Amino acid sequence: MLTARNVTKNYSNLPILKGVDITVSKGEIVTIVGSSGAGKSTLLHILGTLDQPSSGEILLNDVNLTELKGNRLADFRNRHIGFIFQFHHLLPEFTAIENVCIPGYIAGVNKNTVREKAVFLLETLGLKDRLDHKPGALSGGEQQRVAVARALINSPDVVMADEPTGNLDSRNARELHNLFFELREKLNQTFIIVTHNEELAPLSDRQLVMKDGKII
């Protein structure tokens, strides 16, 4: 489903990624691990088209993402790739359900359809009674679940998660781990997860280890 071939990334004369190849299948949960500075987040951002490689190509369902530019790239990203970050990035002035709906509205989906799906996702994630709460009234674990729902609202081909449990306590981290696997079972959702969490990484279908800009 997703394939990266000989991906490199340089900042000035500093090589960060040194020819990375990766293939991820539909419904797979893949974790990327390695020490700080190994290139994990840089690779994830490039796979998710948030950054451009210096060379190489990335294909998602046979679409060459490195050939998309501007609005075409932004539209493809919004419709086909979901993101979960360590610090949620929820908009504080909007409620949980409004935060979840935003990518659907941007994609031009009917507002009632988007809202119905947002309710379904938030209820599925155990937030039935928190739909109209703003982020400041939610716990860290609840905020991260809202972020998960937002990542899923457009039924993306793949969800990219960058240290999704890094800001959670051990109980909420464990619950989020379990949630990823439940979503894979219910929705056949694909996840690529960058993590330092020693509990999550071994549970994935595959664990890719990065060192010095390469997968070893």
Automatic annotation (TrEMBL):
SUPFAM superfamilies for this protein: P-loop containing nucleoside triphosphate hydrolases (SSF52540)
Alphabetized InterPro entries for the sequence: AAA+_ATPase (IPR003593), ABC_transporter-like_ATP-bd (IPR003439), ABC_transporter-like_CS (IPR017871), ABC_transpr_LolD-like (IPR015854), MacB-like_ATP-bd (IPR017911), P-loop_NTPase (IPR027417)
One Pfam family from the record: ABC_tran
Keywords: ATP-binding, Cell membrane, Lipoprotein, Membrane, Nucleotide-binding, Translocase, Transport
GO cellular component annotations of the record: plasma membrane
GO biological process, one term: protein localization to outer membrane
CDD domains the record matches: ABC_MJ0796_LolCDE_FtsE
Domain ABC transporter, chain residue ranges per copy: 2-216
Xref: Gene3D superfamilies: P-loop containing nucleotide triphosphate hydrolases
GO terms assigned for molecular function: ATP binding; ATP hydrolysis activity; transmembrane transporter activity
Family: Belongs to the ABC transporter superfamily.
Protein name: Lipoprotein-releasing system ATP-binding protein
Gene source species: Chitinophaga jiangningensis
